[in-house]
Each structure stands twice: as C-alpha cells, then as structure tokens.
Design brief:
Elements lengths: L13 H12 L4 E3 L3 H5 L1 H10 L4 E3 L2 H5 L4 E2 L4 H8 L1 H13 L1
Parallel strand pairs: 1-2, 2-3
Length: 98
C-alpha cells in the first residue's frame, strides 16, 4: 500500500533537503501544493525535480508551462477570463477616470 509522506518546505535551503528525503523514501512521485513561497521558487523546484529525476504533479498550470511535468490545477488567468473580470475591470477603470 502506498503512503503519503508530507515534506515541509519553509526556507530555500529546505528544497534540496526535500529531494534528498524523497530519494531516501524511494518515493516514485511528488505532488506539490502551491502558495506564494512555492510559486516564487518555481524554476528552482522544476530544476531540482529534473536533476533528481522525480516526476512531479503541480497544483498550478504555470509550473507545467514553465517546464514541469504536469499540473492538475487551472490557469488562474483563464479563470478570470472566463469570469469576465478583465472586461469589468477595464470598464471600471474607464468610468472612474472620467
């Protein structure tokens, strides 16, 4: 039976240590949840995954676009586009500028 092992990453130094831990656990894959700290280090995370040859599923489409293996998340820009927020913001900006 497979188990889920959480790896906590709080500082930049934790990233390489997390991948070393993955090797020790003989983990077959990594699932990355996202937050602003993780998002800001996207390229580093993608690079470490490639270096350690770990398949990763990311929570944000932007990781896959940047070279990560795959994502299960939505495109944030696409969500706003579908909701029509871009048009609404433009109309608001034009009416308040008058």
């Amino acid at each position: 039976m497979d188990t889920l092992e959480p790896l906590k990453v709080e500082t930049e130094a934790d990233f390489p240590a997390a991948f070393v831990a993955l090797e020790k656990l003989k983990a077959g894959e990594l699932l990355v949840m996202t937050d602003p700290f993780i998002d800001a280090r996207r390229d580093e995370l993608i690079g470490l995954a490639a270096r350690y040859r770990v398949p990763v599923i990311y929570a944000s489409r932007q990781f896959a676009v940047a070279g990560g293996l795959m994502s299960y998340g939505v495109s944030i820009a696409g969500v706003y586009r579908q909701a029509g927020c871009r048009g609404q913001i433009g109309r608001f900006a034009r009416t308040t500028a008058d």
